[in-house]
Every structure is written in C-alpha cells, then in structure tokens.
Amino acid sequence: MAYVKKTHRFGLLTPSSNTVQEPEFSAALPPTVSLHTARVAYRDITPQEQDRCVLELESESRKLADAEVDVIVFAATAPTLAKGVHSEVVGFVASIELGRVGPEKAYELGRRADRPDADVVIMPGGNWPAMSVVERLERELGKPVLANNAVSLWAGLRLLKTGDSIPGYGRLLRDHLPHQ
Questions:
Q1: Which residues have C-beta within 8 Å of that of residue 87, sequence separation ≥ 6?
Q2: CATH of the domain at 145
Q3: Would residue 170 be called left, alpha or beta, if left means φ above 0 and alpha means ψ between -120 and 50 degrees?
Q4: Tally of structural domains, the chain
Q5: pTM of the predicted model as reported, rounded to 2 decimal places
Q6: Out of 60, 79, 86, 159, which could bridge 38 as a Cys pair, Cβ 3.0 to 4.6 Å?
Q7: Region for residue 21 given its phi and psi (left: phi exceeds 0; alpha: psi -120 to 50; beta: otherwise)
Q8: Residue 172 lies in a domain
Q9: What are phi and psi of 39, to 5 degrees?
C-alpha cells in the first residue's frame, strides 16, 4: 500500500457503545485526513444517559487535543432531536443493539418516516448504519436525507476547509464541501 501523507487530524467523540461511527467515518474520510477517537460513557438510549455523557465532553476533548487534532466533532444527535414535527422509532433501548441493525433497516425507516410535506428526512443516531443508504433514499424520495454521521463528517470537514467531494453518501458530502 502506498503511503499517503496525512495533512489533517479529525477528532471524533463517540458514545462508548457505538460500533458504527468509526467504520463509516474511516470509509468516507479523504485519504489525507486521519481519524482519532475518544469515547463518552453511553450505553442506553435514555434522557439520563444523554445528560450524563455531556458531562464527559470536556475531559475527553482534552485527551483528543493531546493528539493535536485539528477539529473535534461530537457526533450524537439524540439529545437535539427529541422533539420534531414527525418521527419514527425502532424501539431500541440498548445503543449496542442499534449498531447491529443493518443499513436496509435504516433504509426502510427512512422511507417510512418520509412525508410529502417534509423538506428533508433526518436520520439521527450515530450508531445507526445509515450513510450507505442516503444516496439511494435521496434519489427515490427526491429530497435531501441527512444521516447523523454524514452531517457530523460534513461539519468537521468544513471546519478543516478540506474535503472536496465525497461521492456515494448523498448530496451533502458530494456537493457541499469546500473545494481546495
């Protein structure tokens, strides 16, 4: 394998039970960006766990800073999307179980959640393997689909001012990253 010089370090704060974010981010990141992760304690999908994991953000961010990362993203949306115009749930309590569900379930849920009057379909949950079905859903639904990990990756790459286009994960990563 040829050596590719890493010019940027991407810091990811992820829930401790997450098994999806690191593989999805690694697969999509440009070859010049390295991924560095830290974890906050989060096992069950409950408001108490959500509140508790926020308390660890500062200490875990400091650990990532030791690696001289250029950006840190906390890729968890459950606390911010607890209320919405319409939502579909899958009924999981243990976050680790959500990570075992395949992309086809994410696809089915995205189709089910769509409404004709919706401008966008939002797929929260960093342990939900949805990035690989975003492009397919956008094509079929005719509207943007925002998956947690894709949005988090996009936000970090925008802060890094790097990335160009990342095909295969929907229009956000394909069409809305800064060009070098």
A1: 81, 113
A2: 3.40.50.12500
A3: left
A4: 1
A5: 0.88
A6: 60
A7: alpha
A8: yes
A9: -125, 145
